[in-house]
Amino acid sequence: MTSPKTEITGRGIVSSLGSSIAEFERRLLAGETGIGDISDVAPGLKFKNGAPVRDFDPSAHFDDRTQGQIDRYTQMAAVAAVQAWKEAGLDLDPPPPARVGVVIGTANTGMDAVGRAFRKMFVEGGRPSPFTIPQIMGSAPASRIAREVCAKGPVFGVTSACASAGHAMIVGEGLIRAGIIDVALVGGADSCFEIGLLKAWEALRVVSTDTCRPFSLGRKGLIMGEGAGVIVLERAGRAAARKARIYGRWLGSGMSSDAGDIVAPDPEGMKAAIRAGLADAGLAPEAVGWVNAHGTGTAFNDKCEAAAVVDVFGPKAPPVSATKSQVGHAMGAAGAIEVIATLAGMNHGILAPTLNFVEADPECPVDAVTEGPRPAKVDVAIKNSFAFGGLNLSIVLGRGE
Q1: DSSP class of residue 401?
Q2: N or C end of the chain, less CB within 10 A?
Q3: Annotated catalytic residue: which of 192, 212, 329, 364?
Q4: Can 162 be counted among the known catalytic residues?
Q5: Do 147 and 69 form a contact (C-beta atoms < 8 A)?
Q6: 250-399, what's its fold?
Q7: Predicted pLDDT of residue 180
Q8: Which CATH superfamily is domain 6-241 in?
């Protein structure tokens, strides 16, 4: 195994399982769910369940003027980033601003602002807010975070469907590896419960009418989630020099493109990403003790991902968890939230469960963690993200201290 170039020293989260790391870890590893009835926030849909963030109060973090300038997904990203920055101790020991970068992914950008603008124009006959364009731009979360922490290095947004957070994390790590910066705030954010967006997902017919059942017989599709996840990456050795805790090690990553169907995945592309991640980490497949799957609960995605895992790891493939069975599919934030979930499981010695499992599917022959939280010591784990458009990535993580 090659020595990690980068270490994870801070984590921040806003999710349906809680908006602090302590609450998220407690509920995640206890096997709780953030999925529930959404009839109160989104009536009239063919699907009744989702995983919205219900406890997020922007007024607790931003004054009225700031709230009017940044949309909800940017607000959540900024809150998560400040959490991560403070957990890393960088608020008390800030690095040179020019050596700090921010890369944040999003799939939807500012859908709440878009919905408000359309209602203002076409229902109320008025004009949209003059801040609508700044609210909806895909780089808004990165720009706001840069302001919060005074990051003056590379700052930008990434959008690649539900691989957005993963790609943002990989790019930020690459900037550190290349020597361009020493510290990166990376992750993703999406606000997903604007009614127009939900109706569009309803039309695509991939949302489950009951719940999310990854790798199980009887699975009917994904469950909408939302939120933000941000981690602090630092050049290896920097944390030790300032006596900061290391919550995980970035060992490697791999990316691939199917160059094929816009919505149907290809297991060959998935395998290529996993193998590229292992090669980057200098690891053989048998070194991996756990896979946190993309695991959407859709029939074809789960089948393809299971085939890829079995082909790469063989008949003794490591156990597989699907965090989306607990928090839904947070779209552009999913990869970051699930990296934080993977770190939680590794550091606490508990594999998070795959909930709602009914019966094993012969077409998904993986060791899914379906019995509830499973105690296990894992030194190396892989987090997969496989997005619409055939965009695949795998991140190889090592346990923290």
Answers
A1: -
A2: C
A3: 329
A4: yes
A5: no
A6: Peroxisomal Thiolase; Chain A, domain 1 (3.40.47)
A7: 98
A8: Thiolase/Chalcone synthase (3.40.47.10)
35: CB partners within 8 A, 6+ apart: 16, 49, 50, 51, 211, 212, 223, 225, 326, 327, 328
Burial tier of 358 (Cβ tally within 10 Å: 0-12, 13-18, 19+): exposed
Which stretch of DSSP H or E encloses residue 267? helix 267-281
Q: Which two tokens stand for residue 48?
A: 């009744």
Check if the beta carbon of residue 124 is closer than 8 Å to that of residue 69: no
294 has catalytic annotation: yes
pTM of the predicted model as reported, rounded to 2 decimal places: 0.97
**Regions of the chain where pLDDT drops below 50:** none
Phi and psi based region of residue 222 (left: phi greater than 0; alpha: psi -120 to 50; beta: remaining): beta
**Of residues 167, 294, 304, 364, which has the active-site annotation?**
294
Annotated catalytic residue within 162, 212, 304, 364 = 162
Q: Specify the pLDDT at position 315.
A: 87
Same CATH fold assignment for domains 6-241 and 250-399: yes
Predicted local confidence at residue 385, as pLDDT: 98
Where do the domains of the chain lie? 6-241, 250-399
The three-point CA angle 382-290-341 to 5° equals: 70
* C-alpha distance from residue 66 to each of 110, 152, 328 (Å): 15, 21, 29
Helix-, strand-, coil-residue percentages of the chain, each rounded to 5: 35, 20, 40
pLDDT value at residue 54: 96
Query: Is 167 known to be catalytic?
Result: no
pLDDT at 5: 79
Q: What is the pLDDT of residue 401?
A: 85
- Look at residue 376 in the predicted model and tell me its pLDDT: 98
Residue tagged 């990316």 (tokens): 255
- The side-by-side arrangement of strands in the sheet containing 6-14 is 155-158, 100-105, 183-190, 227-235, 6-14, 248-257, 391-399, 380-387, 290-292, 320-321
